[in-house]
UniProtKB/TrEMBL annotation:
<feature type="domain" description="Phospholipid/glycerol acyltransferase">
    <location>
        <begin position="41"/>
        <end position="150"/>
    </location>
</feature>
<keyword id="KW-0808">Transferase</keyword>
<dbReference type="Pfam" id="PF01553">
    <property type="entry name" value="Acyltransferase"/>
</dbReference>
<dbReference type="GO" id="GO:0003841">
    <property type="term" value="F:1-acylglycerol-3-phosphate O-acyltransferase activity"/>
</dbReference>
<dbReference type="GO" id="GO:0006654">
    <property type="term" value="P:phosphatidic acid biosynthetic process"/>
</dbReference>
<keyword id="KW-0012">Acyltransferase</keyword>
<protein>
    <submittedName>
        <fullName>Glycerol acyltransferase</fullName>
    </submittedName>
</protein>
<comment type="pathway">
    <text>Lipid metabolism.</text>
</comment>
<dbReference type="InterPro" id="IPR002123">
    <property type="entry name" value="Plipid/glycerol_acylTrfase"/>
</dbReference>
Length: 192
């Protein structure tokens, strides 16, 4: 997999220190354990503000993880495009179906270590239902789902239990969403 900020030696150490200090300064705490699996999909929820990205990157440094994340393709245009990729970004063109699930499944099959964060809402705006891509990527690749979270009310972020898909999307989604029912996003009215 490509080189990112997470495996840039001196920069990684500096950002880990800054992340710890920043989170502590603003009253945030880590909860849970870094997933023990070598490959997994991370649910990034609730996703209601741009601060979710900053905090997720900070928590990734604190947990000593190399994380890739999916973002809308417009984030990767212009001079910031290279920086976004260096931060672990994977551009997604949401305007058309382009076999992204299969591309991610293939990526999991091609690497021995790979973790990607996918916000199930697919946007910071309120949605009626979660998009199923995160589930189909995990199930198709045969990897678990790490229940990653940011709870702005309690100022904690981290990981809940690992979830293994059964192939019954509706039943599995109900169990996954139970974990998030008491989480509060930065903009609570935007979290389904």
């Amino acid at each position: 997999m490509r080189h990112t900020i997470f495996d840039t030696p001196v920069v990684n150490s500096c950002f880990r220190l800054l992340s710890r200090l920043g989170l502590k300064l603003f009253g945030w705490k880590l909860e849970g354990q870094r997933p023990a699996a070598r490959k997994y999909v991370i649910i990034a929820a609730p996703h209601t503000s741009n601060w979710d990205f900053v905090l997720t990157i900070a928590f990734a440094f604190c947990f000593r993880m190399k994380v890739f994340w999916m973002g809308k393709s417009s984030l990767f245009k212009g001079p910031l495009g290279g920086i976004m990729k260096w931060l672990g970004g994977v551009p997604v063109d949401r305007s058309k179906a382009n076999g992204l699930v299969q591309q991610m499944v293939d990526t999991f099959h091609n690497y021995s270590d790979f973790a990607i964060a996918i916000p199930p809402e697919g946007t910071r705006s309120k949605v009626r239902q979660w998009k199923s891509g995160f589930y189909h990527v995990a199930h198709g690749a045969g990897v678990p789902i790490a229940l990653g979270f940011l709870d702005f009310k309690k100022k904690v972020g981290g990981f809940g239990p690992m979830f293994f898909t059964t192939g019954n999307y509706e039943s599995d989604l109900e169990k996954i969403q139970e974990f998030y029912q008491h989480m509060t996003g930065k903009n609570p009215k935007q979290f389904t």
